[in-house]
Amino acid sequence: MQKIDGKLVSQAVRDDLAQKVKELAAKGQRAPHLAAILVGNDGGSETYVAAKVKDCEEIGFGSTLTRLPDTITEHALLDEIRKLNQDSEIDGIIVQLPLPRHISPEKVINTIDPGKDVDGFHPESVGRMVGGMPTFVSATPFGIMMLLEYYKIETKGKHAVVIGRSAIVGTPVSILLSRNAYPGNCTVTLCHSATPNIRDLCLQADIVVAAIGKPGFVTGDMVKPGAVVIDVGTTRVADPSKKTGFSLKGDVAFDEVAPLASFITPVPGGVGPMTRAALMKNTFLAYEARRTFTP
Ligand code: GUN
Questions:
Q1: Cα 61 to averaged position of ligand 1 atoms, centre (Å)
Q2: Annotated active-site positions, please?
Q3: Are 197 and 222 in contact (CB under 8 A)?
Q4: Domains within the chain, CATH numbers bracketed
Q5: Tens digits of per-residue pLDDT, 165-195?
Q6: 97 lines ligand 1 (CB under 6 A)
Q7: Which of 8, 57, 88, 268 has the highest Cβ tally under 10 A?
Q8: Strand bridging mode 246-249 / 235-238
Q9: Predicted confidence (pLDDT) per residue in 196-212, tens digit
């Protein structure tokens, strides 16, 4: 069994990006710039956005954080996004989700310029991904693909079982793994809450991707010896021994499954760090694409 080290791979991605920023600076060119919008002061969102801003600083990207009150109207928020769309110094835009209930996330996502959609949530980005065209792939699926690639895990002809059909993880991962590309060329089974025999299907998997948010859902009796196991779960479970008061639990019962697996991602330290690195990579790709295509 080999543990997939998301910290190591994400650091390699960050180091590569930091190096590229240095090379740009040496040529007198500006660094990529990510703009984040945070509406309200939800604790989780505050933490995530702060981490994204810190990642930019560490790599050498510019970043702008726009904080807006949760009383802001949808109209005013859309205007803020349009301003960022127009700003030629900004390469990537993210609006942290969830949003207050009076604001439509669909309208917000649809207002972001697809050329700056580094979250990969815009329907144009999703459509391009489905069509196999170059696009922004959302951070967690992109991070998973980078892990498979880094560890040179064979995917062609394999049976991948993806558990969970969320729009930001399960569904895009199932599409990416079935693409005619590497990583890809898998036969994919996408399981969800209406799938009656997940255990039987999972037992047939060469690659398992667990993304349902149920701690310890994938147990040892569900995994074929030699399978590759990717755990996307990050459920916060109360843990008084931790400074934060919680620990992160994956969707896989790691201790049972690890001895069976050929490769497995731990939680924490597997997919999580890759999600952050993938957003940075998308920001760089947005920068490069804008430099290439704008006069
Ligand atoms: N909220 C939770 N995950 C994400 C993400 O990847 N992007 C944005 N914009 N909001 C989130």
A1: 19
A2: 52, 96, 119
A3: no
A4: 28-113 (3.40.50.10860), 139-272 (3.40.50.720)
A5: 999 999 999 999 999 999 999 999 999 999 9
A6: yes
A7: 268
A8: antiparallel
A9: 999 999 999 999 999 99
